[in-house]
Every structure is written in structure tokens, then in C-alpha cells.
Amino acid sequence: MAQTLLFRQTSGKLWMDGAFIESDKAQISIQTHGLHYGSCVFEGERAYGGKIFKSRTHTERLKNSCKLLGFDLPYSVDEFERAKRELQEMSGIEQAYVRPVAWRGATQLGVSAKSNTVHAAIAIWQMNTYFADKMAGIRLTISDWRRPPPVCAPVKAKAAGLYMICTLSKDAAAEAGYNDALMLDYEGRIAECTGAHIFFVRDGELHTPSAECMLDGITRATVLEIAAARGLAVHERHIMPDELSSFSECFIVGSAVEITPVNEIKGVAYTPGELSRQMVEDYDALIHGGQLG
Does 2 have pLDDT greater than 50? Predict the structure, then answer.
């Protein structure tokens, strides 16, 4: 199943360091610390009908990611929220992808970065459905790369450097004919996909990997809210690869992919069923202004 969009902004305005500028006028130095040493954090957000879903939660996570990387977001949450709203309104894009980013600049180029100025920007572009015909399901392979343990990386930060192995995994999956890759953690347990968390269904109950070595997903938390409102049992636990064949349904969740069912994980087949469909429909209602329960 092909993706239906390109992630890029080729025209229009973006917000950078407190000002709205044309996207083709945005410049950063080649000596930018975030480029050389990965001191960069970001968010991926969606706007529906002109309103950014869980916008403030994303901004608060961005601020926390900065903190985990040892620097401060140079704007308050309220200031950043205002910039996002104004940019979205200025763009006139109703269905949008919003990309806030913060990084250490070029004041000092070296491993040490305490004196570097911190920059921030927000870009926005049109975004519709990530996968066409979601209920057909997507195909996953299993990546050769593993998520690092919490003692080896700031795993709770949405940090650019942590996505290097995700890019390698995603590209390898595409070359092998899959839509994405499922990644294991440092102990060989099921972790997440390259940019989405994963849920499984067994006997009408949900199972999802424990998140101690992964980002605290905002869409994942939303799925847990939907499950609670529906009275569905959820087991957050360690899941081993040899359990894959014991589940009847599977779906991945994230701001970009929303809720997307899976029909295969490297030879293990799933049939997207009623529970997956209900989760897709509930999430769709919620992002368009509906209520849980």
C-alpha cells in the first residue's frame, strides 16, 4: 500500500525564531550544532479542520525533549502555542502536518555546546491520509536495528539523532517491499515501528509493549483513552517476537499514520477486524472534534 503524500513545504510561510518568513528564505549555518552532533528535537502534529490535535500536549513534550538534551526551548509554551495557531491560520490549510523543531545553533562547533544559541521553527504543509485504504492493512518486516536502552540514550526525547536507525530500518523495509519495519528493543522484545507505536488484539483485549525504552506517544495515550472509554482491557507489557502468531489483529498508531491496521508482520498474517475498525472510527471521530464514550 503506497503512501499518499510527500512531506515537504516548498512555498508559503513558516515561523522561525519569533518571526514569520517565507519558507524559501529560511537559512541556518552549516556549522549548526544540531546538524553535526544531533542536538535537535522536534514534534509531528496534525491539524484537522484548521485545529491542531492535542497541540499543547505536543508543545509540552517538545519542551521536555529540549530539557532532556540539556537546553531550554527559548519560548514559553503559551508563546509557542500562539505561534502555531497564527501560522496555521495564516497558511489557510485545513488538513495539515505541523513540524515544530528546536536545535542548538552555530555559536560553538564542538561536542560541548553549552554556549550555543538555541533556535526554534515551525513549518506547516498540506497532509491528507498517510496510507490509502487503511482497513486493507499494511505489511511490516522486522528491522535488524534495535531500540537503545534508557541508560544509553535519552529515549524519552523526540530527538533527531534517535531516528537514524529508524531511517535505516524504514528504507530497508521499503527496498524489501514492505510498508514499514517493526523494531525490537535492546533485549529482543517487541518495541515499536520506525515512527509509530504498535497494538495487538487477542480475545477482544489489547496488548501493547511497555514504553520504558520508547517515546511517550501522544497517539498511543489517545488509544489508551479510547480503550478505557470502550471498557477494553489493555495489557501494557513485554511482548516477545514468538508471540506474534498468537494475536488476531494488529494496528500501528502515531500522529502521521493515525490508526492503521496491519495485515502482515514478516510472514505472520493478521485480518483487520471489528476491533481495529472501531478504533479507527473512534480516533477519526475524536480528531474531528468528537468526544470519548
Answer: no
